[in-house]
Amino acid sequence: MKLATYRDGSRDGQLVVVSRDGTLAHYASGIADTLQQALDDWNFIAPQLRDLALTLDQGKARHAFPFDPRLCAAPLPRAVAWLAPEDGADEPRPWCSDALWGPARPLPAVDGVADVGPSLAVVCGDVSPGVDPAAALEAVRLLALACHWRHGDAPAEPTQPWGVTLAPCVVTPDEVGPAWRDGRLAACVTTTWNGRKLGIADGADQAVPFGALIAHAARIRGLSAGTVVAGGTLPTPQEPGNPPTWPRGYANLAMRRAAERLTLGRASTPWLAPGDRVHIDARLPDGRAPFGPIDVEWASAQSDGVAPGWSRS
After folding, report:
1. Among 39, 92, 126, 212, which is most exposed with the fewest C-beta within 10 angstroms?
2. Which segments constitute the Fumarylacetoacetase-like C-terminal domain (predicted)?
């Protein structure tokens, strides 16, 4: 099952069910108005959403309409919490930003430099304190594709958490089939910067599986439905040698600059700057792109900060 949230001028948007091929959508009105509402009563509401998804996929939904990712907010615009590990740690911590942005929303028109952080994430139901990693995976309701942005004042390295952009759709684990295994999603995540490929990561290489991340986050107080746990910036492998190589590119600009210092003696790649554009997509081994793409531009200070298809509401 594939879900998204359309902007409607409210804080939480309007929940829509999306066809498996990503071409059609149908409002979930009458079942759940928002994704948070669905998560709060998942066992009752999810089967109804699945029935609507099946009807939509069969071409029998009477009020279906073409799905437009540009009209999407973040699938869960006001997540209960957003947790992510730092530098491969096994304990996710609160991401120090409450900005959750839709897939086409431009980055704010401010000065400075920034870096990307492509990541996979899970949306949880209620999780009891002290749960073990295997049981923690039973609380995973949805899978998501995200990008963590870090900002800083030029020319210093951007280290300050800035916001999170999410791909238009979230999907239930059964939607991705065997690609979801043992708390990791085997998806090829490609990051493109100004039309040039920055790196290709595999979710199967995620440092810590989601079961362990959720268990760590829930060990004392538990988690409430609507909490998002991200896996952290996805790694790209380094091949040993003299000098070493990165055949699949780099997870982010910080890694690319570090590689340049190691191999060339200095970093020559600039940081992300206003006017730059980033595209991130995730594909399963069978070629499907279940989440849809993240495709955002960093608005320049001379613009009004509004991308085509976007309104400030």
Report:
1. 126
2. 102-282
